[in-house]
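tokens incoming
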């Protein structure tokens, strides 16, 4: 699977520049304080009712929406499929250069979204230039591509069985905390070179970091310590792992660069993959189209996973791109230095792309007329992994897919009569406009023995 937007599905919009002084934001630009109609990028609807909210935004504002971030910070949210394709396909006009941002003087040190925007540093996610990013992306991609998919699947099966063994005799579990969240971290930790015991510690650290609570800062420091120590150990004693391959890259990256790339790659692969598993389980347990197939498990896993990437994608909004100069996008005058947020989920639901995929339900949803089958079934032209030069590297996408698919298949093979233990409408989403996942998935099932034959 290569889950990126299909160039043949859309054509790029116009990138014509608008006249104006780069030092003075053009009329209508969100950089004007108190821009009329700016949508606050907060509130419960982003996690309780995002599809209807995005449809309302599209109706009221079009494909490029003026939004307001915490502290009255203005930005643009790109929700049109064509417009998002244009932004992600043009790194010269819309680079990922946070140094261009025209709002830095208004950003306090404790601004809550600062970790998402980040500071310039020598890593794949926070490089200063496109050339620096390509250098890191080539190194990271080569190291990840060397992972043997059969070995990866074997690791996934072993670790999935181990997690299921810890609760299978109880007849009940909470599948986010017990399974979906720890599995990706344990697999990634083994791939990059950690022993399994330290992988379990890393899972605890990343879960605490993702919670964003009072222990998040300490968790981040511990995360960096783990990665720094791993790089030092692999420099002295290389092995057959991702960290050692990064250190052996012929472009000769420093230990700090390798540590930062390992840290960012692991963090980026953790929560989206965990939510891909969790959201797929939720879909298969709550949608009648999958209920009859649960006993067969594997037959419907791929369909559920692909549907989640279209309609319930773990990364809803991605930060971001910055306009290199004054321009037009979707009929909006975008000023030099303006921040553009990538509305991945909203673009997937764009009526134009849904119609191109084979029809809609008349409300922007992705169901073909009369069939009850998702119009996007088998189509991977979604934005779940972004697009363009700064997309998630293809080897990372493939690793995430193998982890998620294997995790789901092993779970359904071992516990074929899974059922929610609470009404579906009481399930709670993570309270975030940017990430979409379940806070908990309580289930029941017929108790079974551990894979080793022990109760």
């Amino acid at each position: 699977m290569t889950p990126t937007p299909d160039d043949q599905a859309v054509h790029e919009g116009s990138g014509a520049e608008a006249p104006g002084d780069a030092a003075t934001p053009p009329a209508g630009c969100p950089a004007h304080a108190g821009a009329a109609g700016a949508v606050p990028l907060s509130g419960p609807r982003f996690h309780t009712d995002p599809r209807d909210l995005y449809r309302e935004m599209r109706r009221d504002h079009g494909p490029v929406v003026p939004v307001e971030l915490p502290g009255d910070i203005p930005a643009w949210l790109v929700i049109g499929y064509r417009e998002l394709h244009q932004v992600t396909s043009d790194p010269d006009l819309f680079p990922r250069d946070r140094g261009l941002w025209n709002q830095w003087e208004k950003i306090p040190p404790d601004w809550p979204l600062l970790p998402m925007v980040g500071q310039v540093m020598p890593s794949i996610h926070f490089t200063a230039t496109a050339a620096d990013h390509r250098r890191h992306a080539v190194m990271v991609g080569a190291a990840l591509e060397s992972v043997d998919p059969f070995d990866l699947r074997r690791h996934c099966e072993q670790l999935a069985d181990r997690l299921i063994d810890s609760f299978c005799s109880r007849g009940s579990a909470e599948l986010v905390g017990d399974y979906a969240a720890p599995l990706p971290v344990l697999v990634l930790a083994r791939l990059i070179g950690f022993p399994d015991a330290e992988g379990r510690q890393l899972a605890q650290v990343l879960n605490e970091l993702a919670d964003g609570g009072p222990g998040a800062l300490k968790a981040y420091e511990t995360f960096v310590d783990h990665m720094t120590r791993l790089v030092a150990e692999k420099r002295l004693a290389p092995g057959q792992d991702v960290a050692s391959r990064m250190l052996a890259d012929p472009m000769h990256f420093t230990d700090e660069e390798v540590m930062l790339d390992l840290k960012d790659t692991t963090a980026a692969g953790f929560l989206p993959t965990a939510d891909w598993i969790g959201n797929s389980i939720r879909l298969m347990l709550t949608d009648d189209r999958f209920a009859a197939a649960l006993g067969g498990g594997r037959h419907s896993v791929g369909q559920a996973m692909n549907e989640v990437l279209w309609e319930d994608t773990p990364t809803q909004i991605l930060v971001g791109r910055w306009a290199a100069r004054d321009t037009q996008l979707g009929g909006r005058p975008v000023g030099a230095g303006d921040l553009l947020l990538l509305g991945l989920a909203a673009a997937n639901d764009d009526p134009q792309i849904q119609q191109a995929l084979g029809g809609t339900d008349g409300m922007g949803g992705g169901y073909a007329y009369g069939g009850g089958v998702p119009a996007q079934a088998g189509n991977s032209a979604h934005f779940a992994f972004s697009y363009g030069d700064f997309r998630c590297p293809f080897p990372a996408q493939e690793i995430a897919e193998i982890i998620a698919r294997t995790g789901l298949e092993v779970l359904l093979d071992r516990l074929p009569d899974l059922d929610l233990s609470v009404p579906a409408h009481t399930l709670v989403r993570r309270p975030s406009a940017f990430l979409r996942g379940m806070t908990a998935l309580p289930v029941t099932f017929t108790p079974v023995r551990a894979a080793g034959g022990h109760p």
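note: Confidence is low (pLDDT under 50) at residues 1-28, 31-35, 360-373.
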